[in-house]
Every structure is written in structure tokens, then in C-alpha cells.
Amino acid sequence: MSLNVLCISWGTTGNLSPVLTAARQLRRAGHRPRVMADPAMGGEVEAAGFPFVGWRRAPTGTAADPADFSDLADWLRQAMFAPAGAYAADTLDEIRRLPTDAVLSIDLLVGCALAAEVAGIPHAVLSPHISIRPLPGMPPAASGLAPPRTEAERVAVNAATDAIVSAMESGRPALNAARRSFGLPPVASAFAHFERSERVLLAISRAFDFDAAMLPANYRYIGPLLDAPIWSRGARTAWSGMGRPRILVAGSTGAQNQTDLLRQIVRAVGTVEAETIVTTGPNVEAGDLDAPDTLRVVATASHEDLMTEADLVICQGGHGTVSRALLHGVPLLVIPLARDQADNAARIALRGAGLRLPAAASAGEIAAAVHRLLAEPGFRTAAGILGAAVRADLDAGGLAREIGAMVAAHRDAASRDEGRLWA
User: What is the mean pLDDT of the chain?
Assistant: First the structure.
């Protein structure tokens, strides 16, 4: 069964990379994916060999992905709920333009789920991070919390869960207004698209995540989506082979005002006796870091190649970087700026595969954490255990299998309904 799958990204290139990896997995399985995203991403999508469709009504750039996270409810309103109707209209146009057997869209795109519902085709939510919908027994997304062990910690987890539910629910009136405009009934929960979609695909390893008391029936862990972005390929940066510890400082793909943090990191690692390579990513200029001459600072390099021989990775905690480091059994120092990065940092620390520090950490605190991570072998052992689980998930090919299964089930249900109609 070869399927036409509409794969939809949102926001920054940090979200485009897992969507392109998903599309590659679908293509290798014999399906025909096409990609819908911000028009600015058309070049990268087409370079990857996929048909590209850009947004026409939906917001783009920073209007789609606001940089200010200080008010979560307002951020969700701007990113998810207010533009739901525009995302739905663009998606529905594309579904009607070309044959579409299934829609796979990033979890924040509630409007795309709405469009699939209108069109009556199966829809899968793609979460390239932990579940945004709170799960029983698990600290909620965007909290950066670990599973509670004390009453005070339980109070903190409950308060964080209430906060994200409240923030999401504040956007439900806008969501229901969009649903009514497309002739759909209102929903009683802002998380309805997680509940109604045939699949919610968590693009992380189950061994990496915290343990939920109960996983919804439509949830699946499919492992991380790790193909390198086009802009980072072909870079020829390698370790010198001088025998010192090797540290990779991996700058974030997204624009998160990370220049000051990278300055602090390079100031710290400049005091450590190690070979250090700093990749700034596409949103920071190497000259802005004031790095000592003992460090190599480049815009981009193959993290895949460098991590095979690295002794430590320092990063903000983006899921792609974290998962790739674990895949190679490399311990991490995570210094998050964004809420989802704090969630990854909490998991790394709990599993013993690295350390986390706050964004306000001093250069001395960063240097002390680096020395500890290089000196204590338990961090590498724990990273290797998680890495084996990541590798097993990658080898299982869960995404393409789940997309095929949900379409087959949808078609079987439609055939049964048609049979009852004619009976």
C-alpha cells in the first residue's frame, strides 16, 4: 500500500528537521510524502527531494513562532489557537488539490488536525519532544520537573500541570470558533486533537522519557528523528587526534537569543584542558562569542561525525542534539533556554547521563560541571545504556509502520460503515 502523505511542519528549522526525517522514512517505505511549511523553508525541502507547499494564509516567521515565552497562555494563543482557522484553510486547500491518504503534522498545529477532520482522512500528531498533553503520573511539558519524590515536589508537579492545562484551555474559545467556521461541533478540551487523532507519535525513545502511569491507546513511541539538516551537511571539521578530552559545544538550530549563553560557555570551556569545537548554528555569528584562540568556532559541522569521538557534548537541550549524543553514548551538559529544552535536561539528569545547569550559571559553575562529567565514568555508562535504547527504536522503523497501520484501520472502518449502510 503506497500512500500519499501530507507532512506538515511549523515554526523554525528545528521543527522542519524531524518532519523531513519522517518524510524520508515514509519514502523509504514506498510512500509518497510531500511537505508543507513556512515558505522560507522551501529551498531545504526541495533540496531533500520532496514536493513543497508553503503557507498562504497561516502566519510565518516569528509571527508563527513567537520568541517571547514569558506568558505561556499568550504564547499558546498566538502560536496554536488564534491562527487555527488559517492553518486549517491552507491545509484543506492542499488536501483537496492533490490526493491525500493521511496527514502528519507537528503537535502545535491544531488547525491541521481540524482540516483532516473536515476532510475525513486519518491524521497523526507528530511530537518531536515529550507529550504536550499531560499524562498521568508524569510531570507536564514545559515544566522542566522530574517525577516527584516528596510532598513538596508533588505539589509543584500538580501546580505545573494545572498551569499548562489552564494555559491551553484559555485558547479553546478561539479553537471552537475555528471549528464552527468549518461546520464542526465545539470540543470540550483544548487537547481534543490529541484525543481524536488516530495516532500521537512521540519522536523520542520510551527509555528516555519518564514513566507514565497510563499511556493513551493512540500514543506510540517511535524513537527520535535524527537526520541532519541540509545546511549542516558537507562541513569538514574533525578532531585533531592530540589525545586530550574532546568537547563539542553544539549551538541551537533555532533563534533563541542564545548568544550570551554561548559566550558564557566558551569562557568556561576555555579554562578546561581539552580540545573543544564550538558549532554556533545558523543564528549566531562566530565573531560575537569572543572565544579564546584555544577553541575552534565554526558555523556548522557534522555533529554525527564529531559525536562518534566526543567525550562530552554541551548544548541547550534540543531533542535532536540530545538524542544524537545519547546514540553515541556521549554524556551531556545541558543548559536550557526554552521550556522543552528544560524537559530534556530533567530527563538527562534523572537518567544519570549528564548534568543540567540553569541559564544563569556562571563560567566557574560550567567549568566545574565539565570537569566532573569528564572525570566520572558513570555518566558515559548511563549515556551508553540510553543510547542502546535509542538505536533499537531507530532500527524498528515505527513511524512508517504506524502511518500504514492507521490508514489501513481507517479504510477498514469506512468499509464496515459502508457495508452497514447497504445491509
Answer: 91
CB 115 within 8 A of CB 87: yes
Mark residue 281 as left, alpha or beta (left: phi above 0; alpha: psi -120 to 50; beta: remaining). Answer: left
Helices 259-269 and 363-375, packing angle to 10 deg: 60
H or E element that contains 33: strand 32-37
> Which one, of 158, 165, 163, lies nearest residue 137 by Cα?
158
Q: What is the pLDDT of residues 245-277, one digit of tens each?
A: 999 998 766 656 688 888 899 999 999 999 999
Could you tell me what percentage of the chain is helix, strand and coil, using 3-state DSSP and rounding each to the nearest 5?
45, 15, 40
Angle between helices 84-97 and 110-119 (to 10 degrees): 40
Rounded to a whole number of angstroms, the distance between the first and last alpha carbons of the chain is 28
Q: Would you mind telling me the total number of residues written for the chain in this entry?
A: 423
Cell numbers for 58, please give them: 497561516
Residue 198 backbone phi and psi in degrees, to 5:
-65, -30
At position 222, the amino acid (one-letter code) is I
Which letter does DSSP use for residue 114 in this model?
Answer: H
Nearest Cα residue to 118 out of 193, 44, 43? 193
Q: Are 44 and 231 in contact (CB under 8 A)?
A: yes
User: From residue 348, how far is each of 71, 235, 274, 338 by CA, in Å?
Assistant: 26, 28, 23, 15
Radius of gyration of the chain from its Cα atoms, rounded to whole angstroms = 22
Residue for grid cell 531533542 = 319
From 173, 196, 190, select the one nearest 117 (Cα to Cα). Answer: 196
* % of the chain exceeding 90 in pLDDT: 73
Check if the beta carbon of residue 167 is closer than 8 Å to that of residue 73: yes
Least confident range of 144-148, 324-328, 337-341: 337-341
Distance CA 151, CA 148 (A): 8
Closest CA to 398 of 226, 229, 202, 133: 202
Q: Which of 241, 243, 260 is nearest to 252 (CA)?
A: 260
Neighbours of 167 (CB within 10 A): 18
